[in-house]
Amino acid sequence: xxxxxxxxxxxxxxxxxxxxxxxxxxxxxxxxxxxxxxxxxxxxxxxxxxxxxxxxxxxxxxxxxxxxxxxxxxxxxxxxxxxxxxxxxxxxxxxxxxxxxxxxxxxxxxxxxxxxxxxxxxxxxxxxxxxxxxxxxxxxxxxxxxxxxxxxxxxxxxxxxxxxxxxxxxxxxxxxxxxxxxxxxxxxxxxxxxxxxxxxxxxxxxxxxxxxxxxxxxxxxxxxxxxxxxxxxxxxxxxxxxxxxxxxxxxxxxxxxxxx
Length: 260
Ligand SMILES: [Mg+2]
Fold this sequence. Notes:
Layout: H1 4-21, H2 28-31, H3 39-56, H4 71-79, H5 81-98, E1 109-113, H6 123-127, H7 138-147, H8 154-166, E2 169-177, H9 181-191, E3 198-202, H10 211-224, E4 228-234, H11 237-240, E5 248-251
Parallel strand pairs: 1-2, 1-4, 2-3, 4-5
The protein binds magnesium ion.
The site of magnesium ion has 7 residues, from loops.
C-alpha cells in the first residue's frame, strides 16, 4: 500500500499532466515547444516564394501591394545574390537570342528597353517605402525620379552595351511622363547608358491609358515607321504584352509592384 508521501507525489504528477495537457491553458505553449510551432516562419517563407513566382509569371494577375507577411522575404530576395543572378541569367538568354537575329543593317532592327526596374534600379526608394508593402505614392516617387540618382543594373548595362555592339537600334519606352525627360536622360547617362535612338515618354495624350495600351500603341507606331522589334526587355508584363509585341520578350523580376 502506498505511503501518504507516495500518494501526494502521485497526485502532484497527475495534476501536473492534467495542467500540461489542458488545451485551454495558454501558459503551456510558453515553455513547451510544439513540433509545428517553429514551422510557421518556414511556412511563410515557402508561401512567399510561391507568391513571388505567381507574381512573376502573371498568375497572380493584378495586385496592389505585396502581402504583409512577405515583406521580409521580398527584402531578403532583393538584397541578396539571387536577385542579381536572376538579372544576369535573363541578360544571357536575351543576348543569346540577339546573336541569332540577322540584322538588316538599315538601322531599323530594334531592341526596346523599359527604364524603371529594367535599366535602372529604384531599390533605394522602395527600401524606404516598405518594398512595395505600402500603396504607391506618385508624389514621393516623382521626387525620387527628379533626383536622378537611380543606379544601373550591371546585367542590364552589360546587355545594353552588347546589343549596341551587335548593331541593334535601342529605343527606350517608359511610363515616365514627358516632363521627366531631362532628369531621366541625365540619370541614364550617369548610370552608364548612352546612344539610344529614341526615348519615348508619356505625353499629355497618353495620360490615363493603361501601360499595356500606351506601350502597345508606341510599338505599333514604330512598326508603321518601318522598325522591326526583335527584342523587348521589361519588368512588367504591361511592358511586353498587348499588340505589336516583339519577336522575343524578356521579363526581369519585380516583386515590389504591378503596373497594369
Ligand atoms: Mg519598369
